[in-house]
What we know:
single chain, mainly alpha, 3 helices
Amino acid sequence: MYIIISIIFLLLLITTYYCIKFALMIIKVQETIEESLDILDKSYNKFNKILDIPIFYNSPEVKAVISEIEYSRDSLLYIANQLVGKKEIEKEEDFE
């Protein structure tokens, strides 16, 4: 009887250790994602400022660069939306 209780207690300790370990890992990943989203937000705002400047040169190369910047801006927005999730974005829009 005491052997079974000892084994169950040992398994409980092992399970508790791994639960705490994984919880700390999840918290670190969440903090990293939040920092990444802040960086993506800054880049997105910079891209918007660049794209607001009117173009006075009709070269195909310049137009190609502008279209790549627009694609990069849209990609940043897509990545941020995928990381955050659409529900959280809808909540933020309700507050604004």
